[in-house]
Amino acid sequence: MAKTDNIKSIFANKKILYVIVAVAVLLLGFGGYKWYEKHFTFAGAVVNNVYKVKEVVRVGEKHTSFTEYSTFKRNGDQILELSSYEKGDIVDLSNSDIDTNKIKKDDFGFEHYDKRSISVVRYNKNLKKWKRGKWKDMPKITLTKEGYKWHMGNNNTEGYVSVTATKVD
Predict the structure, then answer these.
(1) Which residues contact 102 (CB under 8 A, 6 or more apart)?
(2) CA 1 to chain CA centroid, nearest Å
(3) Distance between CA 92 and CA 157 in Å, rounded?
(4) What is the CATH number of domain 46-167?
(5) For 62-115, what is the HEC assignment?
(6) What pTM was estimated for this model as a whole?
(7) Are strands 50-59 and 140-143 parallel, antiparallel or unpaired?
(8) What is the CA radius of gyration of the chain?
(9) What are the extents of the domains in the chain?
(10) pLDDT for 52-111, tens place per residue?
C-alpha cells in the first residue's frame, strides 16, 4: 500500500477528519486570542515596559503637574503599576519579579513597594476594578502608539486627573 493510500484512508473516515478540523480551529482560536491579548489589551501592551508619565491634577482651582516613571507587572489576576520619580528604580523593577510581601500600606491607605518612593496601584486584568487610595471612579484609558493616556473627571467636576505616558526605550 502506498503512502498516499494511507493518507486517503485516514481522511475517508469523516469522524477523524472532523476531529482534526475541530482541534485545528481550537488551536487557531486560542493562538489568536493570546495574540490579541498581548497586542491590543492594556494589560498585554504595557506589562514590563517602562513609561515616562506626565500627570496633571486639578482640584478646585489648583493645578499641579509632575513627571514620574512607571512599569506594570502581572500578579495572578492583577496588574500592578509601580511608579517612582526615580527612573532607575522603575527600570530595575521592569526587569525583575515583584515580591508582593514587600508591598505595604501607609497611614493614608496608599500602597508602596519595598521603599516609600515606589507607589503601587492594583488593577484587575481587564481594568474593570482598580484601587488607588480612596478613589472609586474608573479612569478612561486609551492605548496610543507611544504609550497610553487616561483621565478621570472633566471640567465640570471638582477634581480632574489627566495622564500621558510615553514608552521609554
Answers:
(1) 113, 114
(2) 56
(3) 37
(4) 2.70.180
(5) EEEEEEEEEEEEEECCEEEEEEECCHHHHHHHHCCCCCHHHEEECCCCCEEECC
(6) 0.66
(7) unpaired
(8) 23
(9) 3-40, 46-167
(10) 999 888 887 888 999 999 998 888 878 888 999 989 888 888 888 888 899 998 888 888
